[in-house]
Fold these 2 entries.
Entry 1:
Amino acid sequence: MNPTLKRFLAHRLVWPITALLVLVIVNTIARPSFISITVQNGQLYGPLLDILRNSAPLMLVALGMTLVIATRGIDLSVGAIMAVSGAVALTYISASPAPEDLSTVLVAIALAVFVALLLGVWNGFLVAVVGVQPIIATLVLMLAGRGVALLITGGFITTITSAPYRFMAQGYLVGLPFAFYVSVIAIVIVAVLQRRTALGVLTEAVGINPEASRLAGVRSRGIIWGAYAASGLLAGFAGILYSSNIMAADANAAGLYIELDAILAVVLGGTSLMGGKFTIAGTVVGVFTIQTLKSTITFLGVPPAVSPLFLAIVVVIVVLVQSPRTRSLFAKGADAVRGGTRRTAEVAS
Amino acid sequence: MSAITADLGRTGGFADTIQRFRSRHASWVPVFAAVVILVAMLIGAQAYFGNFVTPRVLSALLLDNAYLLILAVGMTFVILTGGIDLSVGAVMAFTGMLGASMLSQGMPVAVVIPVMLVLGALMGLFVGVLVQYFGVQPFIASLAAMFAARGLAFMVSLSSIRVEEPAILWLQSTRMQGGPGSFYITPTGILALVVVVVGILILQFTRFGRTIYAIGGNEQSARLMGLPVVRTKLLAYVISGVCAGLAGVVFTAYTGASYPLNGIGTELDTIAAVVIGGTLLTGGSGFVLGSMIGVFVYGTIKTAISFLGVDQSWTRITIGALLLVFVVVQRLLVARTARTSR
């Protein structure tokens, strides 16, 4: 095999991107309108744009999840944090005298995101300081969080009509959905912080061996704490986007199962759940793959209720491809082929 | 030599006996803590409501939580090996849906119930094979099974299926009176208690049970000792699957109908109950009896909240808070034993 090609195939983003491309191609063949983009009033419309727009909440959550998973943790509470954040923002707006004012909306968002950050800090405290297992520490908030959100909204689904708030998820800026800008900004901030400073390397060190990195002088406690705080903060923004999209705070439905989708996106992107090395670009690709898959399922006319089955099949295929056993089987096969060609070459010479 | 040790033991007196008991039965401490919490909650609720600890409420506690009890026994096996099974709620819904649909087509109960159990076993086997042969993390493998089972449940039917089969309804509607006062027990309750007893017997008195604890303690050591690690772990997931299938039967009997959205979040309730019952999520330490106490703690909270007449969202908040208290206490206990043994 050509060495350049080999190096290309060994790159960890090859498989995630291939999966995404295959999905896009299948979709385009099934319905040519899939890649069509129309312009109306200077705004771009089309199935691809919908995917960009609808993937924003998952993107934010998955970015936070990547950081948490890199430290060998997991954050199950993101969906509940989304519900709380949406509930806080909408309750504030609906109770304020001037719900249409931009300042009201900004205060509401700041308040909601601050509460989400506090919840993330709480998770981080349990994991990094008390030393509770990540699954259990975040399970506490996953169970209690939705209850808290229900208490904030008083058990009702709060709805509002504030135009500035609607803009967050449904507005357009220079032809593209505003939500898309939010996810791009989040990706850039996380990528710069992690890859242009030593933070990313330190995070990976903590994930690979917490004890060794602590002995080497890495403040693993602070780094783990920070990862959960960031995850909470991003989930808070995701909750704003979600509630802005439906203009309602539904404590039961907001962010339901998003933790699973986010974990899936991270794993699809090639970050191992064992912690350590992580890839932000992989997570981005993973998020788009999941969102495209969901759009495909809807298009195929499968009832949304059955869509978990398709998701399960995809997960199984991906984890099987990534599993060491399957890889060693493939490697054996490839070796046999290579050995064969070498023998033929010897005979020829 | 033995005389000296005996002497030392005697001079230590009562405090020493307690110390020795605690160090030998360290893994029972969380179970005792759960019992204390349960008793305190019952006493507190009785003092507050005045009519809480009655035969009616206590009997209903077992009846209402029979399915959870069965799931918790299966989950205990998996968690003891150091794994986790997120699929139980969805598998319960799926087997319940398929069973109800088969019954509505006129199939006999004697066929339907074994099919439901085998189906649960197959889902468990699926998770086990992914975990054991392909090195997939239990969390992800059982997540895939959860999605698959939920999707399959919806494929059976999108709406609720009523069950009119008398044999299934009998499981729920028969009230066997017994004991002082008006205590009663239903066949579903008996079934759940039988599952608990079988679980205890398997874990404490069979080679398989010992192997489960050994794997949870240290999988590498268990393998080096020549214990059948692969077979045992597979079997643990299969047991959890069978329990989920049985819970499907019990839950169908309990509600008299099957609905594909049944049991959403049940896996979390189950894990919470098992952890409250004193089983360590890292594996190797815990008891089926503890899980039973955990389920009763969960049930008592739920009943107390419905007695209070406040929003049911408080159940989840209380469970979350209780879970927190328990893991922090467990964490402190573990840290302490680690210090003293060093």
Entry 2:
Amino acid sequence: MAHNNTHVVIIGGGGTAIATMYDLCLRGFKVTLIERGELTSGTTGRHHGQLHCGARYAMGDRNIAKECMIESSILRKIAPNAIEYNMGMFVALNDDDMQYKDKFIECCLASSIPAKQIPVSLALEYENQLNENIKAAVLVPDGTIDPWRLVLSFASGAMLTQRATIKTYTEVIGINKKSNYIESIKVINHTTNKKEIIKADVFINATGPWAGSVAKMAGIKIEVTPSPGTMLAAKGRIANMVVSRLHKAGDGDIVVPQRQLTIIGSTQWISDNPDTNRVPKQDIDFLNKSACQMFPNFKNLEYHTAYSAARPLFGSYKKDEDIRNLSRDFVAIDHDKDDGINNMISIVGGKATTLRAMGEVVSDMLCKKIGIDKQCLTSSTPLPNYRDFYKGGYHGSKY
Amino acid sequence: MEANIKTYTISIKREKDKYMDFILDLDTSLTVLDALDEIRYKMDSSLGYRHSCHHGSCGTCACIINNKESLACMTFLKDFKEGKITIEPLNNFKIISDLVVDISTMINNMPGGSYLRESELSKDSIKPYGIFEWNRFENCIECGSCISACPVKKDFIGPAPLTSIHREILKQKDENKITELKKIAFAKDGVDACDKHFLCSKVCPTKVAPGKHINDLRKIKN
């Protein structure tokens, strides 16, 4: 089969799904993306907004840290319009934090993250709203993402190849499985109320915390734990850099400035349903207090809103386990080996910063699977402006 | 903390002039967008609306709430005295379904260029190596509220595109590009089509004041 006739259906419309669509389109595949709502209306749109250089993970998982460093550098090059790049700072507030500092810097450097301690006076010059009593500051290359516009840039890139079709407000309601493969999926278009059968050569399940329920339609079990967290946004920009607490990753320890807002996050809990997770009211007080430790003036900022999104963590949660122990890494699953379906791949987990890498891993897996030698082009190709997405009319219908 | 539950009638304009009422009990701390989510997940999965960031940053969820252009995610139920809330799609855009509109006409009238601007905070501070100026995203989140509220009926590219053109002129250093941008701004359907109603500035959720940008463009016309 010539690969440019290979039709791939991607289920999901978040960062991973769209980055995968873009990657496959650049490699010459025809792709149809099916999303039950608006693009990025699940986890992606509601994430904290941090472009992770990986420093936050350097102590816990060096591979994730390294990957974040590589991917954040790539995104800064290919999508500068969707990133406020002002760097980031880890600040120590007490003796415990100070104990953590040297090991933190060592782990960052071992993960190729150029972390550098700077004098407190310089940190206060960079960020004059910062708590004057900080004991140490470490500079790292973090930034802020506009998730909607970043992902739309990827979607623009896919649409410009004229090999992508995006079907939003279209929900998968059935998967037609034959003995060892998926023949088609049945979808309903909510805007027209019409049902449709879509055939494809390969199916990719990139539905984040919903991956388990999509897989279930194909009779497959995927362990994915929806793990929501709260973000609190205040009106007014209190910093230019992302400012994190110099201690073991925990709740309420990252302040992300964005546009004219300041967003502190996050918390984390376990949910069995990723659809509607309301912000626990106690989270707002907690996050407020946490932000004030780093920025005492945060308490004077006007409340903007609080929101939450379900992270898609791969694996199942055991009662009483520390939730932060669940990995933030992503996993691509070829359902051939364990589940006996030879044309379906699922991708679960990961984070917004690594969306491009996730697209690359899934696309590599797909190419290998069907015996096509096509290299990934996404890390070296600048993305078009997100506004180009609209050049083709509503969701590229006129491309 | 106790939940404060109230019964709301959410009346949504769906097909042409047909409104559908949904009656549901909701915590008053929730937003109109949360209410739409509740309706979609629990009552009618076919309800169409746009949303992404849930914190007033992406601009996708703009619609007309009780006759005023608003972001559904930043409109809180506690601010309504009455329990009835009417939600309609934005005006002056093609409706795809329910509250979903096609904003491509607006975006396609915006220039290319950068979505970043210099941040006002610590503007004069020294900066880390490699950072020339602190930057941040533009204020306009391209939600379309201003275009919906604008009463001008003649051909008019609208407040958001003109704002975007003005911002780009302010940032642009290339004289040729500025001339091109001015050509668009001062075409028949540009600045001159604005009748100075200023409803654009009134409804803008991020206080961009498009009316002021249009006025500023007028000043540089000659």
